[in-house]
C-alpha cells in the first residue's frame, strides 16, 4: 500500500510549449484516481513522467517514501516498480498470454504460479497458452492488467484503457479491472477524457486543465460542487445563470436560488445541474411549493432512459437544458413552467 | 522510447558501422591527395579524363532517356489500360531487376558481337535498369485520383491533352527520381561496360589500377566518380522528399476505369512483348543455347562446384556481417531522433552512392598500408560487401523495427527490464522476420557483386560472377554459360523466399 505524491511537476517541450505547469496531486494508498481532462491538457505527459519515460523539468514524484523524480534524481523506468496498462493493451504479440503475464516476474521459479494467479484474478484462468491475437479486445485489456500487476508494482498507471473497446463491452471490462485492482490493493491512476468513466470508476477524480489540477476530490463532490464553471461544464452538463447574491440566496432570471455557501461578492454566476431544474405545467405551483417561472420549449432530445428538454425562460436570453426522466409530454413550441430545486454553487464573475 | 538519446549498447556498435561505411570515402580522398593536390588536379584535368567523363555522361544520358520512354510507356499500359493479360505483364516488367548487368552483356555480346561498344552498353544497361523508372511511375499512376482526369476532360481537354497536362506533371517527380537512380546505376556499373569494352570511368579506373604501380591516378579518378555519384544521390533524395508531399490525400481514390485500347491493342501488345523478350526471355534463351552447345565434356564440374561453394561462402559471410552491423543502426534510426541518430543513418547510406570499384580500391589502399595480413584475404572482401550493401540491410531493419509500436518497449521497461534486455526479448524477436528478409536480399546482391570481388578476392578464389566475367571477356561463351546458369539458380532461391515473405 503506497501513496503517490506529485509536487510542482513541470514539463515543457519548448519555450512556448509548457505541458505541465507546477502540477500537484496526491493519491492515497490503495485508491484509484482518475486524471480527467480534454485532449492536450497534459494528462498523457503526466503519465509518461510518472512512469519515467520522460524527464520532468522541475518538481518531484514520490511513491511511498521513494523519491523517483526530483532535482538531480531520475530513476529509470525499469527500477520504478510502476506497472502500465497502455491503450489497446499492447500485449507482446510473439509471446503466449502466460509468458506475457510472467514477463516482469523476476523470480524464475515463481513465474508459472504467479501468471496463473494473475490470470485467475482477472477472470481468464486457463487462457495462458493462447496467443494475444486469439483474444478479444476486452480479454487483451484484462491480460494487460494482469501483466502489469504480476510483479507486484507499487503503482499501476492505466492510459485510456477502455478507449478501444465498444461501449457494450466497456462497462463489464471496467468493472472487472476495478475489482482486480481492489483485490490487490494497488494504488492506481487512470487517465481518461471520458467524464462518465472517471465518475463511475474512480475513488478520486482530478480534473486537469492547462497542465494543472483544476479540481481534485471524490466523484460526487467534483460533480455537485465544481470549483468553477469550466469544471462544471467539463464533468457534466451545466446550467450557468448570471446572479445577484445576498448572503445565502442568489437572485436569478429563474427566481431566487439557495446557495450552498454564502457568497463573498454580490455579482456572479450560479451553477446548476440540469436535473436540478424541474419542468411543470405552465402556471402551476410545483410540488415543492417554490416559485415557478414561465418558459417556452424549443427542443426535445430523447435518449431512452431520459430526455433533455431545452427551454427559453421568459426574460432570459440563453436557452437552458432540463433533464427529465423517461418520455416528456412537451413538444417544441409548448409553454411550460420551470422550477429550481436544491442548492446551487456560486462563482464570482459572469458566465 | 520516443525521443531521448540512444543507450551506449546501441550507439557504440552503430557508430562502428557508420565509421566503417565512411572509411572508403575518407581514405580515397587521403590517397588521392597524397602526392599533393597539384598532382591529383593534373590527373583529373588530362584530356583522357575529360574523355572518360564525356563517355560516362553520354552513356548515362542515352540509358536514362531510353529507360524513361520504356518505363513510362510500360507503366501506363499496365496500370491504366485494358491490355490483355495486364497482371502478367506487370510482373514480367519488373523481372529484369534480377538480371545482373554482366549477364545481359554476356547475352547480347555472345549473340551479336558487333554490338560491343556504346550501343551494346546502352542496350544492356537500359534493359536491366528500366524497372527503376517503371516501378515508381506505376506506383504514382496508381496513386493518381482519376477525378483529376475526369475534371480535365469535363473542362474540354482531349485524352492526349489530358495526359500531357494533368497526368505527366503528376508523374514527373516519380520519373525524375527513377531516372536519377538509372543514372547512378550506369555511372557505377562495371560489368556491362567492361565486357562491352566501352571506356567509362569505372573501366578507366580498373585499367589504370591494373596497368601501373602508381595508384594515385586511380584514386584521383575514383574521387571524381564518387563526386558525380554523390551529386546524383543528393538530387535523388531531394526529388524523393518532394514526391512525398505531392502524394497527400490520394489514399482512398476510386480505382480508375481502364482505358480501352481498341485498334491500338496489337501494337501495345507488341511493344510490351518486345520489351520483356529483350530484357528477360532473350538472356535466358541465349544462356540455354550456350549451355546446349557447349559439350558436356568440357564442363569442368569440380571447378563449377568449387566456385559455387566459394560464392555461397563469401556471400553468406557478407550477409552476416552486413546484417550484424545494420541491426544497431536500424534500431537507432527507427527509435531515436536527434542529430546523432540522423548522422549515423546518413553515414550508413554512404554505400548507396559509392560505386563498387571505388570501395574496393579504397579498401585495397587501406589494407596494403595498415592491415597487410588481410590484403587479398576473405575478411577484406566481406568488409567491402558490408560497406556496399549496408544501406539495403539498414532499410530492412529500420522498417522491421517500425512495424511494432514503441509502447511495447515502454511496457517491457516498466516491467523491470533494462534497455539491452528489452532489445533482446522484445525489439529483435519482433523485427526478426524483416531483418531476415533484409539478410536474404543482402545475400543475393553479395552473390552477384562483380567489381569489388574482382579486386579483393583472395588469390586463387573465384566467384560465379568473376568466372562468368573472365570467360565472357575472352569470348569463351560456352564456358561462361554454366556459371551464369548456376548464379541465376542460386540467386533465385532467396528471391523466391523473399517474394513469399512479402505476400
TrEMBL record, chain A:
One of its GO terms (molecular function) is ATP binding. Its EC number is 7.6.2.9. Residues 4-235 form the ABC transporter domain. Keywords: ATP-binding, Cell membrane, Ion transport, Iron, Iron transport, Membrane, Nucleotide-binding, Transport. Residues 327-351 are annotated as: Disordered. Pfam families: ABC_tran (PF00005), TOBE_2 (PF08402). It comes from the Bacteria. One of its GO terms (cellular component) is ATP-binding cassette (ABC) transporter complex. The keyword Iron applies. PROSITE patterns: ABC_TRANSPORTER_1 (PS00211), ABC_TRANSPORTER_2 (PS50893). This is ABC-type quaternary amine transporter. It comes from Actinomadura livida. The lineage of its organism: Bacteria, Bacillati, Actinomycetota, Actinomycetes, Streptosporangiales.
TrEMBL record, chain B:
InterPro entries: MetI-like, MetI-like_sf. Keywords: Cell inner membrane, Cell membrane, Membrane, Transmembrane, Transmembrane helix, Transport. Its main location: membrane. One of its GO terms (cellular component) is plasma membrane. Gene3D superfamilies: MetI-like. CDD domains: TM_PBP2 (cd06261). The keyword DNA-binding does not apply. This is Iron ABC transporter permease.
Amino acid at each position: 500500500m503506497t501513496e503517490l505524491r506529485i509536487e510542482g511537476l513541470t514539463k515543457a517541450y519548448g519555450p512556448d510549449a509548457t505541458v505541465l505547469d507546477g502540477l500537484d496531486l496526491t493519491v492515497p494508498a490503495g485508491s484509484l484516481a482518475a486524471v480527467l481532462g480534454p485532449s492536450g491538457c497534459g494528462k498523457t505527459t503526466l503519465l509518461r513522467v510518472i512512469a519515467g519515460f520522460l524527464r520532468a523539468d522541475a518538481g518531484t514524484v514520490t511513491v511511498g517514501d521513494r523519491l523517483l523524480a526530483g532535482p538531480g534524481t531520475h530513476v529509470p523506468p525499469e527500477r520504478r516498480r510502476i506497472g502500465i496498462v497502455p491503450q489497446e493493451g499492447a500485449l507482446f504479440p510473439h509471446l503466449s498470454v502466460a509468458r506475457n503475464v510472467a514477463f516482469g516476474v523476476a523470480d524464475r521459479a515463481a513465474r508459472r504460479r504467479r501468471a496463473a494467479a494473475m490470470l485467475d484474478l482477472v477472470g481468464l484462468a486457463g487462457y495462458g497458452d493462447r496467443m494475444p491475437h486469439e483474444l478479444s479486445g476486452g480479454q487483451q485489456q484484462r491480460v494487460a492488467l494482469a501483466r502489469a500487476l504480476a510483479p507486484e508494482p507499487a503503482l499501476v498507471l492505466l492510459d485510456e484503457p477502455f478507449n478501444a473497446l465498444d461501449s457494450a463491452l466497456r462497462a463489464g471490462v471496467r468493472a472487472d479491472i476495478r475489482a482486480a485492482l481492489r483485490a490487490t490493493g494497488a494504488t492506481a491512476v487512470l487517465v481518461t477524457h471520458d467524464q462518465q468513466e472517471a465518475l463511475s470508476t474512480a475513488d478520486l477524480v482530478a480534473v486537469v486543465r492547462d497542465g494543472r489540477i483544476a479540481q481534485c476530490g471524490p466523484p460526487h463532490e467534483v460533480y455537485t460542487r465544481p470549483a468553477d464553471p469550466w469544471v462544471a461544464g467539463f464533468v457534466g452538463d451545466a446550467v450557468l445563470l448570471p446572479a445577484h447574491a445576498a448572503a445565502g440566496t442568489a437572485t436569478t432570471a429563474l427566481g431566487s436560488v439557495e446557495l450552498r455557501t454564502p457568497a463573498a461578492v454580490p455579482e456572479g454566476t450560479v451553477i446548476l445541474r440540469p436535473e436540478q431544474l424541474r419542468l411543470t405545467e405552465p402556471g402551476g405551483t410545483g410540488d415543492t411549493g417554490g416559485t415557478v417561472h414561465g418558459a417556452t420549449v424549443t427542443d426535445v432530445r430523447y435518449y431512452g432512459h431520459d430526455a433533455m428538454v431545452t427551454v427559453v425562460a421568459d426574460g432570459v436570453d440563453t436557452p437552458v437544458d432540463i433533464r427529465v426522466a423517461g418520455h416528456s409530454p412537451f413538444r417544441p413550441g409548448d409553454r411550460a413552467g420551470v422550477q429550481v430545486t436544491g442548492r446551487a454553487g456560486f462563482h464570482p464573475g459572469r458566465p | 522510447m520516443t525521443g531521448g538519446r540512444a543507450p551506449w549498447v546501441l550507439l557504440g556498435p552503430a557508430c562502428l558501422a557508420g565509421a566503417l561505411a565512411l572509411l572508403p570515402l575518407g581514405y580515397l580522398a587521403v590517397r588521392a591527395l597524397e602526392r599533393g593536390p597539384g598532382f591529383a588536379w593534373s590527373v583529373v584535368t588530362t584530356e583522357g579524363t575529360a574523355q572518360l567523363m564525356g563517355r560516362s555522361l553520354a552513356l548515362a544520358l542515352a540509358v536514362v532517356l531510353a529507360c524513361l520512354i520504356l518505363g513510362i510507356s510500360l507503366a501506363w499500359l499496365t496500370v491504366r489500360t485494358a491490355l490483355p493479360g495486364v497482371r502478367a505483364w506487370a510482373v514480367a516488367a519488373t523481372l529484369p531487376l534480377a538480371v545482373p548487368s554482366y549477364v545481359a552483356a554476356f547475352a547480347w555480346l555472345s549473340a551479336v558481337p558487333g554490338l560491343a561498344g556504346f550501343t551494346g552498353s546502352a542496350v544492356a544497361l537500359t534493359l536491366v535498369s528500366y524497372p527503376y523508372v517503371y516501378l515508381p511511375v506505376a506506383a504514382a499512376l496508381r496513386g493518381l485520383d482519376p477525378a483529376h482526369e475526369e475534371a480535365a476532360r469535363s473542362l474540354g481537354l482531349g485524352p492526349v491533352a489530358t495526359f500531357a497536362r494533368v497526368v505527366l506533371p503528376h508523374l514527373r517527380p516519380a520519373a525524375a527520381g527513377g531516372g536519377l537512380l538509372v543514372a547512378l546505376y550506369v555511372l557505377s556499373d562495371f560489368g556491362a561496360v567492361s565486357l562491352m569494352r566501352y571506356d567509362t570511368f569505372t573501366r578507366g579506373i580498373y585499367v589504370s589500377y591494373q596497368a601501373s604501380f602508381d595508384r594515385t591516378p586511380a584514386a584521383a579518378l575514383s574521387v571524381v566518380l564518387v563526386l558525380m555519384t554523390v551529386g546524383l544521390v543528393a538530387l535523388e533524395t531531394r526529388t524523393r522528399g518532394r514526391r512525398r508531399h505531392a502524394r497527400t490525400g490520394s489514399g482512398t481514390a476510386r480505382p480508375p476505369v481502364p482505358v480501352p485500347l481498341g485498334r491500338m491493342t496489337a501494337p501495345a501488345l507488341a511493344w510490351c512483348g518486345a520489351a520483356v523478350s529483350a530484357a528477360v526471355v532473350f538472356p535466358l534463351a541465349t544462356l540455354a543455347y550456350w549451355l546446349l552447345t557447349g559439350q558436356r565434356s568440357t564442363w569442368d564440374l569440380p571447378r563449377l562446384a568449387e566456385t559455387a561453394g566459394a560464392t555461397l561462402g563469401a556471400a553468406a559471410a557478407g550477409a552476416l556481417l552486413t546484417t550484424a552491423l545494420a541491426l544497431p543502426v536500424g534500431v537507432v534510426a527507427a527509435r531515436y531522433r536527434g542529430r546523432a541518430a540522423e548522422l549515423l543513418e546518413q553515414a550508413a547510406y554512404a554505400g548507396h552512392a559509392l560505386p563498387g570499384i571505388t570501395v574496393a580500391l579504397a579498401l585495397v589502399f587501406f589494407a596494403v598500408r595498415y592491415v597487410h595480413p588481410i590484403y587479398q584475404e576473405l575478411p577484406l572482401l566481406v568488409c567491402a560487401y558490408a560497406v556496399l550493401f549496408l544501406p539495403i540491410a539498414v532499410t530492412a531493419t529500420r522498417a522491421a523495427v517500425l512495424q511494432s509500436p514503441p509502447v511495447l518497449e515502454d511496457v517491457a521497461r516498466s516491467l523491470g527490464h533494462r534497455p539491452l534486455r528489452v532489445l533482446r526479448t522484445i525489439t529483435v524477436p519482433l523485427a526478426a522476420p524483416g531483418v531476415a528478409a533484409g539478410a536474404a536480399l543482402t545475400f543475393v546482391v553479395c552473390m552477384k557483386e562483380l567489381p569489388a570481388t574482382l579486386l579483393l578476392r583472395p588469390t586463387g578464389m573465384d566467384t560465379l560472377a568473376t568466372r562468368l566475367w573472365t570467360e565472357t571477356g575472352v569470348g569463351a561463351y560456352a564456358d561462361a554459360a554454366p556459371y551464369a546458369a548456376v548464379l541465376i539458380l542460386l540467386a533465385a532461391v532467396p528471391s523466391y523466399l523473399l517474394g513469399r515473405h512479402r505476400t
